[in-house]
Design brief:
Blueprint (H helix, E strand, L loop, with lengths): L5 H24 L7 H16 L4 H20 L3 H21 L8 H14 L6 E6 L5 H8 L3 E8 L2 H13 L5 E4 L12 E4 L6 H11 L5 E5 L10 E4 L7 E6 L6
Parallel strand pairs: 1-2, 1-4, 2-3, 4-5
Antiparallel strand pairs: 5-7, 6-7
Helix pairs in contact: 1-2, 1-3, 2-3
The structure holds S-adenosylmethionine.
Length: about 260
């Protein structure tokens, strides 16, 4: 399943909270339950709706957890500043998504394993690779690359502040020796790398391709998880899951521009 567009995700998540609240209201009106148990109904309703709307799994949990969390927070009668802080944290996490149309959505274990499995085939007997994860998220893919023992220099760049901070902390704790930068992937010179990994969104792919075709050097590989480049079939494809879209797409550079 492809990452949903951020606005659609938000709209569906909100709709599920409304659905959960309506379910609780209906149960209350029917006189079946009163008080705190109604929160359970709102929670189940929101989680069920998230599932039916085919939101990613972790949104089922977020949807179901929201009504009791909101009620708990309201009961605590916290100062308004706390809510302002929560709003700022959300903006740090999701604010950039609206501009980039690339949500935070992590390569799972199977994609990471598929990538390391490919390294032997793409770069036999090399352990001096320069590799970069464009839009590094929480740094997990980068850790996998580094732990494969094939990188002389592994790098990641991330521009959403909260993921950047969390990823930086995680990499530091793991003793990651490479580079983790805050900034835009569009400013990175791809000519420095043997391997460029990107898990972005369909909206980013035409621009990424133009950049890669301009900058990447001969013999290097561009690898996109899930997203194709319109009009440029990949040289190779490695399935990750059963869904045909769940695959790593590989282009050996240089290739003709579109
Ligand atoms: C789908 S996630 C992939 C995360 C990670 N690479 C992985 O595979 O697990 C895409 C990430 O790209 C980041 N991103 C989007 N646009 C960006 C840009 N212009 N520069 C740097 N990072 C960007 C997002 O904030 C998000 O963390």
């Amino acid at each position: 399943m492809s990452p949903p567009a951020p606005w659609s995700l938000l709209a569906r998540a909100l709709a599920c909270q409304v659905a959960g609240a309506l379910a609780a209201l209906a149960v209350h009106q029917a006189g079946w339950l009163h008080g705190w148990p109604l929160l359970g109904i709102a929670s189940l309703g929101a989680g069920f709706c998230a599932w039916r709307m085919r939101l990613p799994r972790w949104w089922w949990v977020i949807g179901a957890a929201f009504p009791p969390a909101a009620a708990g927070v309201a009961a605590l009668q916290l100062p308004a500043e706390w809510f302002a802080a929560a709003l700022v944290a959300s903006l740090l996490l999701f604010g950039t998504v609206m501009a980039s149309r690339v949500p935070l959505w992590l390569s799972g274990r199977r994609a990471r394993d598929a990538l390391t499995g490919l390294l032997d085939e793409l770069f036999p007997e090399r352990s001096d690779l320069r590799a970069i994860d464009l839009g590094g998220g929480l740094g997990g893919l980068l850790l996998t690359l580094w732990r494969s023992g094939r990188c002389r220099h592994c790098a990641g760049i991330e521009w959403a502040p909260l993921p950047y901070l969390v990823g930086g902390l995680r990499l530091r704790l793991a003793g990651f020796p490479g580079t983790w930068r805050f900034g835009s992937l569009w400013r990175v010179d791809l000519g420095e790398y043997d391997l460029v990994y990107a898990f972005l969104s369909p909206a980013a792919m035409p621009r990424l391709w133009d950049k890669a075709a301009r900058e990447m050097r001969a013999g290097s590989w561009l690898i996109s998880y899930r997203f194709a480049v319109p009009g440029v079939p990949p040289d190779r494809r490695r399935a990750v899951g059963d869904d045909p879209e769940d695959a790593l797409l590989l282009w050996r550079m240089p290739r003709q521009r579109r």
